[in-house]
Amino acid sequence: MTTALAKATAFTALHTPAAPLPLANAWDVASARIVEAAGAPAVATTSAGVAWSLGAPDGDALARDRALDLIARVAGAVSVPVTADIEGGFAADAAGVGETVAGVLAAGAVGVNIEDGTRAPAEHAERLAAARAAADAAGVPLYINARVDTYLFGLGESATRLDETLARASAYLAAGATGIFVPGVTDPAVIAELARGIDAPLNVLVGPGAPSVAELGALGVARVSLGSWVAEAAYAVARRATEELLGGGTYASLAGSLPYGEVNSLLKG
């Protein structure tokens, strides 16, 4: 418990616009070890990558016990704090979300992402409150990153989307969230408005074409996530290599791969 408390405290302290927390999301033990070995101060899982690696689609389709098992494997394989994307909470109701969070803490993670999706904001607030209650019961200051999907899914009218996002963020923080995650936004002007209007660390999702980490920090962003992009890139290599092998019988797609010995050594001990 002392270790969990220390890791949770350290993880929360990493969230600052002065030096935004950069997260290259992992989906298994090997990718988590690679991220840690590259110097990352924390490891975050990607729900999509985790689900795909376990043979399920993203979007609350993965069984909770399988997700918790993967979280435990990742948390047990690295020394830095781990935050887990648990989609909508792997549960049908708020009480179930509380059970999931208790399992996440037992697995060794000290942070979670919980998304609202198309759920009513009031219902999502109840889920976040249950997550906070479970963390409080365990005595761990769990970092609860409440994901607001208004921009990602284009919910509501575009003219009122910013106000709706800020209203949801306020309600989620009141329910016990630590920070707010707004994926689907790369416009600097909108990001700056979000940072000004949210009284908590702001997390955004990035990829090709998005502002740099330094630029996002200047806008007020405290956490920058690659989400499923890394897993998607890895699977793209698998497809390109296969198509090249089957088509031309060549192997150029594999240039730049990590050496076998380097990867293997990360899994020893």
Write a concise keyword list for the protein shown above.
269 residues, globular, alpha/beta, single chain, 8 strands
Descriptive overview:
- The protein is α/β, with parallel strands linked by helices and 269 residues long.
- Helix content is 49%, strand content 11%.
- The protein is built from eleven helices and eight strands.
- The chain has an eight-stranded parallel β-sheet with strand order 1-8-7-6-5-4-3-2.
Taking pLDDT < 50 over at least 5 consecutive residues as the criterion, the unreliable ranges are: none
The computed structural class is alpha/beta
Instruction: Work out the radius of gyration.
Output: 19 Å
Q: Major sheet, described briefly?
A: 8 strands, parallel
- Residues in helices, as a percent range: 40-55%
**What's the overall geometry?**
globular
Number of helices: 11
Please provide the count of β strands: 8
Strand share of the residues?
Answer: 5-15%
User: Mean pLDDT across all residues, rounded?
Assistant: 97
- Termini distance? 24 Å
Give the structure's gist in a few sentences.
Helix 8 links the parallel strand 6 (179-181) and strand 7 (202-205).
